[in-house]
Each structure stands twice: as C-alpha cells, then as structure tokens.
Specification:
Elements (H helix, E strand, L loop, with lengths): L1 E4 L2 E4 L2 E2 L3 E5 L9 H10 L4 E5 L2 H4 L14 H11 L2 E5 L30 H17 L11 E5 L11 H13 L5 E6 L3 H7 L5 E6 L3 H11 L6 E6 L15 H13 L3 E8 L10 E3 L3 E3 L18 H14 L15 E10 L4 H4 L1 E5 L14 E8 L4 E7 L5 E6 L2 E7 L15 E5 L4 E8 L19 E3 L2 E2 L3 E6 L18 E7 L7 E4 L5 E6 L2 E7 L6 E4 L10 E7 L7 E5 L6
Parallel strand pairs: 4-5, 4-11, 5-6, 6-7, 7-8, 8-9, 9-10, 10-11
Antiparallel strand pairs: 1-2, 2-3, 12-13, 14-25, 14-31, 15-24, 16-21, 16-24, 17-20, 17-22, 18-19, 18-21, 22-23, 25-30, 26-29, 26-31, 27-28, 27-30
Helix pairs in contact: 1-3, 4-5, 8-9
Length: 584
C-alpha cells in the first residue's frame, strides 16, 4: 500500500515517486484502453489517474451500469496488466469539463437537493452511489492486492466552498465502504483554496499549469513535512465552441517537468491522453457567459485524441526514462485512412419523426428535461394560444441552451443563452414580435442542450425551457416531447416536410479499421452518428473542424451507415471522411 514516511511516499515499504498521467476510461473506447495505457507506460509513467463519472454509472436512480465504456473495473485491471498503479478520483463531483461535473441529471429533479454540501438528502444519494462503486472495485484496491493506491476526496472543493462537515462526511463514507488506501484532496495553491478544500489528517495536493517550483513551495508552507504532489499538472487545455484552439509549446511544458524532477516532486499530467466527449457528454463553463465545451478533449496532450505521439510525448519520455534509468519499447503508432466523400442520399425532418423517436408528456408548465427523466439530447414544447391576441411579443424564459421558436409550424427565430439578450416584458422587448390574428395559434419550441455547466456557482444547470410569456401573460398547458436522440434506427426516411432540423443518411465502404475523421464543412451545427454511435456535436463556429471517428466502429464486411442531424442549414448533402484531424 501507499504510505507517507519521512516526507516521502513509500509503496510496499519502498520509496516511490508518483509519475502519473490522466486518462478517462469514459472518454476512450474500450478497444483502445490497452494501447493507450501501454503508450503511457512507455513514456516512463508508473501510475495513471482517472475520474469516475457518476452520471454514466447511475443514469437512473438505483440503476447502475458498469459495462462497455464504463466498465471501470476492466479498465483498472488492464492498467494492472500493463504495470501501472491507479489514482482514483470518484468525486462524487469531478468537474472534468464533463456534463454536470459528473453528477447525474436526475439529482436535480428533486429541487430540495443541495449539491456539494452537508445536505442529508444529497449525501444519501452520494453514499448509495459510492457503496455500489466501491463494491465493484473492491478487488482492485491495493489493500486487497489490487493496483488502486490512492483515492481523492471530492474535487477542488476549495475553489467552490469550505464546508468541512461535508468533506468529513465524504471521508466517512469512503471508510464505511472499506477504503483503506491513502486519501487526499486537491486544490489550487492560493490560501483560500487550500484552506477551503483541505481536511485534517488528509494529504493536500495542488493543481497547476506553470511555475511548478514556486507553487509547490506554497504547498510546502501550508503543509510541511509531507510529500510534494501535483495532482493536476495542466500540460494543455480544453476548447470551448467559438474560441481558438488551445496549443502550448512543448518546450515550456518540458521545462516544468524539469522543475518537478529537480524537487523530487510527484506529479500527474492532466491530461496525458484526453480522448473525446462522445455523444452529449461535454460540459460547459458559465462565468460572465455560458461557454459549451467542444466534442474533442484532445487537450493538446502528449498522446493526442486518436492515440498518436506528439513532440511533448517524446520530450517527456526522454526525461522520465533517463530519470529512472529504464528503457521501454515504443508501441506502434496508429494508422489513419482517407475514405473520401460520402453523399447523403436520404433525408427526413425531425418533425416528421417526433412520434417515432420521441416520448410525449403533458405538463401545465414548461419544465426542464430533468423533470421528465431525460438526461441528454433535445426537448420540444408545444402549446396553443386560445384567442386573437393581435400584435404581441413572445418571450422564451430561462432558455438552456439554444431554443428554436416555431409559430404554426414555421420557423421564427433562435434564442440562445449565449446571446445575453436583455428582455423587458413591460417595455415591449422580447424574442419575437408576432401578429396573433387568428384563434388557436400554435407556439412550439425546440431546445438543444449544449452541455450542463461543470464548474462554479451555475452548476445546477437544468436543461430546456422554463416558461413562455405572451406579452405579460404566462402560457400554460404544454405537450412536451423528450428527444434523447439515442434511437435513430426508428427514423422514417420515406417522408420529409423539409423543415429543419433534418436528418441526412448515407452509406460508405472501407476494408480498414484505421483511424479517420469526419469533415463537416457543408453543415452548420448538429450531430454525427456512425453505425448508430453518436460521435458528438459539430459546429461551424469552430475551432474544431473534424470529428474523430474511431476505426473500431467501422464495418469492413458490409456498408457503414452515417446519419447527420443538421439543426440549421446544409449547403450540400455530403461529408468527407479524411485521414487528418483538424482541431482549428
């Protein structure tokens, strides 16, 4: 087991320096787990770190999933086979630029639940989840002969609050579940973060992106006579839609690694291999404005999104192998393929398929999708104005995140949380002005959820629409259709009204399972599915210009199906599958 003696880590009674890299099993398809872990080992790492995503493990309350991409036990056992120890960060909150910081959407259906504090209702859900998780991983714990050597309590709590009773309760739950491994917290190095996030008797570590030497000295002053540990060394960064792709000079990162080694410090690269926010799993930040995270979580990491080496990888490998006086063969690089243009020959409208792929609910008020037991996707609201109202402003209330307004079946306008639009019901400002000159006018709104906030005070981020005003009146009595968009095999392409959103479908062949990338320049905003698997969101605003298509998803013995769901506009119904990734 991992212990602290003489200001150092000892593993099984031998001095041990943690040289770790972050990889999230839920961002990498299981087919590639061993390849990525072997490449991490070959870089001189002896440990890997992963968060645990509560939302995918318990998608519905008391319904647990530990299979497929969330077979965390298999992932940890694979790391053991490769010869890597594991640092586990189960949260329950993880941030991670992941939808809702890893919390399951159903957690906010009960509006009495208070997140990330000593709230009995919330902690009851947390304990139930952790009991199932730690039961699943019991054999992987070092106290039982496994390779999990350390477990984090919560996550960067000092950046959020200072409820020590809450942190102590999480520790108590861990211990009640049989966790005997080294426990730690991680925070920024400034005083309020260290004081707010630390817990008596628990090792405090820090997270940083630069000035490792100076920041570790701050940690040493706060917590003397303990090992120096950086749990997150940000060797890259993530992207939001609509901003520039983040790139960091590898020489700058290598200099920080030199400082870690000079201080004999322990560190974890965040990320060493970033992976992908497949489907609807990407989170968002919300400070002055709401900013959704891109599908790619490449992070400018040493191993890029599809598992290829970078200049940074080779720089790190050289330093760590030399430091440990070891030599490890380099695994093979991934192969890529260029399939070329794929024409999308079939098309149908979402509105022609609401009964096929949606589930209808009736509600007196417009509620968030969580109230209808929906985790991800889109949601459609419809109501009728019972009278000739004349010229009135329509206001969509508390939109999360982009709403498409239709009046009597015709598209009218888009309202986005990113617009920061000032509304005033009393002074004739609204989302649209419309002449309701006939009785029983239908108002409908399709809301696209772009990712729940994963950090900060806006974390309780319920998705959908929370009301419609016509002039100063609240509208009631809604037909609500939930659209998780996980059942596109039910689409009927025999009919098409031509109204966006549209689904385009095509087929292509390949004889290779090499890696490739979907280039979407003919499209504006939407989702791409390959053989029923949701690759994630594309958006012309960038910076990302291609979506990673893992080669293991491809059929080599029969045609492959591609479906593109386009929200707004398509110039030409064709895409290209290419051999070069373009992240901006």
């Amino acid at each position: 087991m991992l212990e602290i003696k003489n200001n150092k880590f000892y593993l099984d009674n031998k001095p041990f320096n943690i040289y770790s890299g972050a990889i999230h099993y839920f961002r990498v398809l299981p087919y590639y787990w061993k390849d990525r872990l072997q490449k991490m080992k070959a870089a001189g790492l002896n440990t890997i770190e992963t968060y645990v995503c509560w939302n995918l493990h318990e998608p519905k309350h008391n319904e647990f999933n530990f299979e497929g991409i969330v077979d965390i036990k298999k992932f940890i056992q694979t790391a053991d086979e490769v010869g890597l120890k594991v640092i586990l960060r189960p949260g329950p909150y993880i941030c991670a630029e992941w939808d809702f910081g890893g919390f399951p959407a159903w957690l906010v259906k009960d509006k009495n639940v208070k997140l990330r504090c000593n709230d009995e209702l919330y902690l009851g859900y947390v304990e139930n989840y952790l009991q199932h998780l730690f039961s699943e991983l019991s054999s992987c714990m070092s106290c039982n002969g496994g390779n999990i050597i350390a477990v984090q309590i919560e996550n960067e709590y000092g950046s959020y609050a200072n409820d020590k009773k809450y942190l102590a309760k999480i520790k108590e739950i861990y211990e009640k579940c049989g966790i005997k491994e080294l426990l730690f917290t991680s925070d920024g190095d400034c005083a309020f973060m260290l004081n707010g996030g630390s817990l008596d008797g628990v090792l405090e570590t820090i997270n940083l992106g630069s000035n490792a030497e100076g920041r570790l000295k701050n940690l040493e002053a706060f917590q003397p006579n303990k090992p120096l540990m950086c749990t997150e060394f940000w060797c890259g960064w993530f992207d939001h839609w609509g901003e520039k792709h983040h790139v960091r000079n590898y020489k700058n990162v290598a200099k920080e690694v030199d400082d870690f080694l000079k201080l004999n410090a322990n560190f974890n690269f965040y990320m060493f291999h970033g992976g992908t926010n497949f489907g609807f799993t990407a989170g968002a930040n919300h400070f002055a404005k709401y900013m959704p995270t891109t599908t790619s979580y490449d992070y400018n990491a040493p191993l890029n999104e599809y598992g290829d080496y970078t200049d940074l990888y080779f720089a790190i490998r050289e330093k760590l192998l030399k430091k440990q006086n070891i030599d490890i063969p380099l695994p093979e690089r991934p192969k890529t393929q260029n399939i070329g243009e794929v024409k999308l020959t079939k098309v149908t409208s979402l509105f022609d398929n609401l009964d096929n792929i949606g589930t209808k609910h009736y509600s007196p008020t417009a509620e968030g999708m969580e109230q209808f037991d929906q985790n991800f996707g889109m949601i459609y609201y419809k109501t009728v104005v019972p009278g000739k109202y004349g010229l009135c402003f329509v206001n969509l209330d508390d939109v999360h995140d982009e709403a498409y307004l239709y009046i009597d079946g015709k598209y009218n306008t888009k309202v986005s949380i990113m617009d920061n639009k000032v509304k005033n019901l009393l002074h004739s400002k609204g989302d649209c002005l419309y002449n309701f000159e006939k009785d029983k006018t239908e108002i409908a709104v399709l809301v696209d959820a772009l990712g729940r906030t994963n950090y900060g005070d806006h974390i309780t981020d319920t998705k959908g629409l929370h009301g419609i005003h016509l002039a100063q009146q609240n509208l009631f009595d809604y037909e609500v259709t939930t659209l998780p968009l996980d059942n596109l095999e039910k689409l009927d392409f025999s009919k098409n009204s031509g109204n966006y959103p549209l689904f385009y479908k095509g087929e292509f062949n390949t004889t290779s399972n090499a890696e490739c990338f979907v280039e979407f320049s003919n499209f504006t905003k939407g989702l791409i599915y390959i053989n029923g698997f949701n690759l994630g969101r594309y958006w012309k605003k960038g910076p990302q210009k291609t979506l990673y298509l893992p080669g293991c998803l491809l059929n080599t013995d029969k045609p492959n199906e591609i479906i593109v769901m386009e929200m707004e506009n398509c110039k030409l119904p064709s895409i290209s599958i290419v051999d070069k990734h373009n992240l901006g």
